[in-house]
Amino acid sequence: MLVATPLVINGMRVKNRFVRSATGEGMADPDGSPSMRLEACLKALAVGGVGLVVSSHAFVEKRGQARAGQLGVHTQDMEAGIARLARAVHAYGGRFVVQLAHAGCRADPAVTGEPALGPSLPQDPAAPPCQAMAAEDLARLEAAFGTAAALCRDAGADGVQIHAAHGYGLSQFLSPHINQRTGAYGGSLANRARLLLEVLGAIRGRIGRDFPVLAKINSEDFVPGGLTAAESVQVISWLETAGLDGVEISGGVFESGKLTFSRAGRIAIPEGEAWFRDTARAVKAAGVTMPVILVGGIRSLGTAEDLVSSGDADLVAMSRPFIREPGLVARWLSGDHAPAACTNDNLCFAPARTGEGVYCVTERRLADRDQTA
């Protein structure tokens, strides 16, 4: 099976083609440092055979924090915690990449103590308040990404991933639905992509060319006037030219309804899997040669293998299935090819948001029922 074979990304050897996509576990301590529960969570994924473990979105500056319980890489004090996470994954043969994020207009002022800042004032009066970033805010954001990347490298992480998907900060700049700026950072696609490309440049300026840098980007936003698939393909091509080492393709924002990145409901196998495959295929057809990671609705080994063997993707990523089964990859590679047990009911999000920490609520309920039967 090709999904069981290794792949090298800018010197980082990943033992198989399975990726744990960044997941908001809600397991960080109040200051943003990783708790022992978070360390155990990532360790379980490595024990379970995941080749590349991507951390939850980690805020690069305090005013870019999305919620309480979020991992942080915003101060030097965070380095020791990131080092612990890296060692936990490395001990079982996995590779560890930290996702670097800024929430933009989705930052929580109750947590940050500052107003949320994004590309422009919200057009929707029902949207949370958000102020437009000034030139000094943009410069501060770019520097924060570079500093955070250097911290992760020094802590022993194997790479970093720029979060530019799902309607968070950099995704907001890419989206004409949200970004109503004029001038250098708004309007044309080149202008809307400018901040993302400058963030990549700031990271490379701090860590050089030999440290793996990935990005996560929407295939499209799935909202009227949002980022389109054709625009996404172009941005990914620009990112490769600018020195990106790999891209993870996802899709949707919180307002996308049934087409969001965490669609609820049973997934038909195989016809309902791999939601963003067409865009991944278009990226390859556009001549992009860096590794493509595909996430979104992958629930069977057969589909994972088909994605890699067809060349549509080089690695496959999952999030919710690993909440239910951190040992899913080991199960599949040992010969048990039953689809992932995840039912996509999204009940796992609630404990992550309340500070309890992410877990499969459905699995726990079944276990409790069996104990009382």
From TrEMBL:
Domain of life from the UniProt record: Bacteria
Q: GO molecular function, one example?
A: FMN binding
Q: What residues does the NADH:flavin oxidoreductase/NADH oxidase N-terminal domain cover?
A: 5-331
Q: Which residues form a coiled coil?
A: none
Q: Which Gene3D superfamilies match?
A: Aldolase class I
InterPro entries the record matches = Aldolase_TIM, NADH_flavin_oxidoreductase, OxRdtase_FMN_N
Keyword terms = Flavoprotein, Oxidoreductase
Name of the protein described by the UniProt record:
NADH:flavin oxidoreductase
What organism is the protein native to? Solidesulfovibrio aerotolerans
